[in-house]
Design brief:
The chain is of the alpha+beta class and 185 residues long. It is built from 5 helices and 8 strands. It has a 6-stranded antiparallel beta barrel with strand order 1-2-3-8-7-4. A hairpin with a 2-residue loop joins strand 5 and strand 6. It binds flavin mononucleotide. The site of flavin mononucleotide has 19 residues, from strand 2, strand 3, helix 1, helix 2 and helix 3.
């Protein structure tokens, strides 16, 4: 058993010195990503053929990497089978994958992932927190809302923001403030 669980694993993907939250679909022993065309992650995978899945529990990092860039020192080099890859310096755990584009349409690419190396750096226990989960949900909806401004998405974002206010700790509230800033842009 590896680190990926069944279903969609919301990790932070690093490709070159770029980071973005991405879902890894893990079913029947197969791991895949569906990437909207035009993102840096999609471009880098098409060019370099690798991606690292970073397991982190900092809600601020999910918001920052969904909308902005991280400083250089947020990344660290990892030599994996003769290639230098980049992962997040603060990752609790990470998996390096070979990434192959299996399908390409105008809107998206489907990428199959083959595990090369998997490491746990830190062992920590995190209680389930609805505020953390709702930061992830609000951020997913916000990445789409910023493109299409659908009112349905705005309602979902507001619903999840209320849960963050009610259930979140300091880190979730800091992530919320950041997200509100990106939505106001
Ligand atoms: C939790 C979460 C999961 C996401 N999953 C995906 C995904 O599976 N595929 C995708 O194309 N975008 C996904 N996104 C949106 C990207 O993170 C977003 O478009 C980002 O700006 C891409 O950054 P990049 O241009 O640096 O690659 C997700 C966002 C969040 C917050």
């Amino acid at each position: 058993m590896g680190l990926l669980k069944g279903g969609i694993n919301e990790i932070i993907a690093t490709t070159a010195k770029n980071a973005a939250p991405i879902g890894i679909h893990h079913r029947d022993g197969k791991a895949t990503m569906i990437l909207l065309s035009g993102s840096h992650t999609a471009e880098n995978i098409g060019r370099d053929g690798w991606v690292v899945a970073n397991f982190v529990h900092d809600p601020v990092l999910y918001v920052k990497t969904a909308f902005g860039d991280l400083p250089e020192d947020a990344f660290t080099e990892e030599p994996v089978n003769g290639t230098t890859l980049y992962r997040l310096a603060g990752a609790d755990a990470w998996i390096a994958f070979l990434a192959k584009v299996e399908k390409k349409t105008n809107e998206a690419i489907v990428v199959s992932l083959t595990k090369e190396k998997e490491i746990i750096e830190e062992v920590a226990v995190y209680p389930v927190n609805r505020g953390f989960n709702s930061i992830i949900d609000a951020t997913v909806h916000a990445t789409r809302y910023r493109i299409n401004h659908e009112i349905k998405l705005r309602h979902l974002i507001d619903y999840h923001m209320d849960i963050v206010r009610k259930c979140g700790g300091k880190k979730e509230l800091a992530a919320l403030a950041l997200l509100e800033g990106y939505l106001a842009e």
